[in-house]
Write a structure and sequence with these properties.
The protein is mainly alpha-helical. The chain has two helices and two strands; from the N terminus they run ββαα. α1 packs across α2.
Length: 79
């Protein structure tokens, strides 16, 4: 997999089928939203097919739900 950008720049990822592009993309989007506090509506992910876009959307939705469930199931700590 070839990634042609450094942190904070646009990215172009070139890789073959089954190399983990979608998984990496979801990780990057989640990191932008959680670590850098960039709203999801300000992040663009562009792909060549509607099927790939639907897959990205579903995986992103699933990952957000997973993170929310982890967050709400953590015990609150008194300060």
């Amino acid at each position: 997999m070839t990634d042609t950008a450094s942190k904070g720049e646009n990215r172009v990822v070139i890789a073959g089928a089954g190399s983990g592009k979608t998984t990496r993309l979801i990780g990057e989007i989640i990191a932008l939203a959680t670590e850098r506090k960039i709203p999801l509506e300000r992040i663009a992910a562009i792909t060549f097919t509607e099927a790939a876009a639907a897959e990205i959307k579903e995986r992103l939705r699933s990952e957000i739900m997973r993170l929310c469930l982890i967050h709400i199931s953590e015990p609150t700590r008194p300060y």
